[in-house]
Amino acid sequence: MLLDLLQGGFDRMDILRLLISLPCIMLALTVHEVSHGYAAYRLGDPTAHNLGRLSLNPLKHLDPIGSLFMLLVGYGWAKPVPINVRYFKNYRRDMAITAAAGPLSNLLMGIIGSLLHGLSDSLFNHLLYLHPTEALYNFGLACSMLLYVFSFLNFSLCFFNLIPIPPFDGSRILFVFLPDRLYFGIMKYERIIMIVLLGLIWANIIPLPIGGISASLHGVLYDLAYILD
Question: Which of 62, 170, 188, 200 could form a disulfide with 205 if both were Cys (CB 3.0 to 4.6 A apart)?
Answer without folding.
Answer: 200
